[in-house]
Amino acid sequence: MVAISPDETAQWDRAPRARRTTLMLAALLGLVSVFSLTVGAAGTSPWAVLADWLAGREIGLADRVVLFEIRLPRLAMGALVGASLAVSGAVMQGLFRNPLADPGLVGVSAGAGLGAIAAIVLGGLLPAGLAAALGYYAVPVAAFAGGWASTLVLYAISTRRGRTSVATMLLAGIALGALAGALSGILVYMADDAQLRDLTFWGLGSLAGATWAKLAAAAPLMILALACAPMLARGLNGLALGEAAANHIGIPVQRLKAVAILTVAGATGAAVAVSGGIGFVGIVVPHLLRLAIGPDHRFLLVNAALLGAALLILADVIARVIIAPAELPIGIVTATLGGPFFLWILLRKRGVLDL
Amino acid sequence: MIRVLAFALAALAALPAQADRVLSVGGSVTEIVYALGAGDRLVARDTTSTFPQAARDLPDVGYVRRLSPEGVLSVRPDLIIAEEGAGPPETIELLEAAAIPFVEIPDGYDGAAVLAKIAAVAKALEMPEQGAALGAEVQAALDATASAAADTPPRRVLFVMSVQGGRILAAGRDTAANGIIAMAGAQNAVTEFEGYKPLTDEAVTRAAPDAILMMVREGAEDLADQVLAHPAIRTTPAGRTGALVQMDGLYLLGFGPRTAQAARDLSRALADLEG
């Protein structure tokens, strides 16, 4: 028998460290946000604008557009999309008890991709009235609808007699993904040159299209999903023991699964709809945090939201300025910087993190 | 003070003052701007504007369909001339919000379209005389090309965009390639579909082109040998005689001021092949 003294358990209690991390990440998010407002191709300075405003001087039209119509909605969009992707990733990894899980597993990405491709290629076939009403929202609306539809189909397939089988969901997700890929392939074949370009760029993701109107449509859903996520924390912690054990300790596993899947579909669906395919954030952010603060979802989810938001805002700043006045798709930035960094972390912590 | 300034600005706007910070978007549009002698009024261009050489020295605001709103504003343009399809629409909307005049130039793949482009660009730049002069010059070149083309026997030409994994990506109807082949007095060997699509080997054989037409891209691998060695191409008249013409992409497919010349060059190159 080994006697464990209170000192030794205190050493393993990661809560204080996690709380410190939360504070640090919140500060980082604040810093990065201010930074993203101050840099950009146009050279507009928010401080100068603020000084003008305080002094009652008129703010130039160009400065006003750059600051309030371009950088500010982009910042808000980056924060929400980053937080949504990172939290969705953490929830999926908890739900599937698999470190490789990402929102793609519940069919959101494949469905959203198919929706977006369909809107880009077949958009011209819409009745003129509907096309005019949708305007350039056709692609985000179709992506969102596609993401949700495929998640609901997947959920229906893998739920029998009120019980959702995670394993069935995983396999059906692969089948559905292949089907969506095939349908996308048909549409790609039909697409003309310009549409192919649009498809490629959509797949690489960008926050360049962030407008207040888009934000007003997508933000409520992302905020709702982000607000729901912390409520899943205890259940996901219990689920780490296995489904049966979680049931025994009183966790309503079926309800947990349903809420988790809807949360992920909502957050990721909205994020992908407004920003295209931004890979990597959903899988890397939760892993980085697990290395730093451990796997407790009570801390993991909040910190994932903060780190995801900060990282995506930073990636967007790089995307905007690195080849200014042109800009890079943000998916390229997240993957080129994130990939090697994540590998380096894995190599250093190989012993700790046995995947 | 502000009111005085506003009056001064309004007075300036009322005058036929020329925009002198112009952003040109689209390879053919930029070519026309230079051909009109207004190159010195350009402050930036897009990625597809690579001719003349002077255009390459201008800042690049990105790909024509993916313009970044802040990037465009950062070059402080007072006029944007863009080819049809420039975007995305979100960016165009923001540029309108920033009160920057935006002129869209219609696109098309024949001689009339080139003249319409020149007229539209000249109008946007407020250079009617230069526009008329360039238009007349291009019209004369187009007429010369057309009469030369009428004398040459129509050959079947297959435009090969690329060879990916052994598949020939060919130009069908409603493409710039189709347009320039017609202007050169030849015939597009593929008319079954619109746009650029991969052809099966049998379709290549059935198309039976007398000549292959391809683009040369700087820095890109030369695909000519690969195309002529392609098993399906080898069954065609073009493959047997090794009849292949390569021309610069923007020159051949840009439908700008040099198009009449390009069609003439193509026509001659096709005639030379027969020897």
TrEMBL record, chain A:
Gene3D superfamilies: ABC transporter involved in vitamin B12 uptake, BtuC
Compartment annotation: Cell membrane
MF (Gene Ontology): transmembrane transporter activity
Pfam families hit by this protein: FecCD
Classification via CDD domains: TM_ABC_iron-siderophores_like
Coiled-coil portions: none
A biological process term (GO) from this entry: siderophore-iron import into cell
Membrane topology qualifier: Multi-pass membrane protein
Keyword terms: Cell membrane, Membrane, Transmembrane, Transmembrane helix, Transport
Entry GO CC: plasma membrane
Transmembrane segments: 21-43, 75-96, 108-128, 134-157, 169-191, 211-229, 259-288, 300-322, 328-347
Source organism, top-level taxon: Bacteria
Family according to the record: Belongs to the binding-protein-dependent transport system permease family. FecCD subfamily.
The protein's name in its UniProt record: Iron complex transport system permease protein
Organism: Rhodovulum adriaticum (Rhodopseudomonas adriatica)
Automatic annotation (TrEMBL), chain B:
UniProt entry keywords in alphabetical sequence: Signal
Signal peptide: 1-19
Pfam families with a match to the protein in the record: Peripla_BP_2
InterPro entries: ABC_Transporter_SBP (IPR050902), ABC_transptr_periplasmic_BD (IPR002491)
Domain named Fe/B12 periplasmic-binding: residues: 21-274
Gene3D superfamilies: Nitrogenase molybdenum iron protein domain (3.40.50.1980)
PANTHER family recorded: HEMIN-BINDING PERIPLASMIC PROTEIN HMUT, VITAMIN B12-BINDING PROTEIN
Protein's name in the database: Iron complex transport system substrate-binding protein
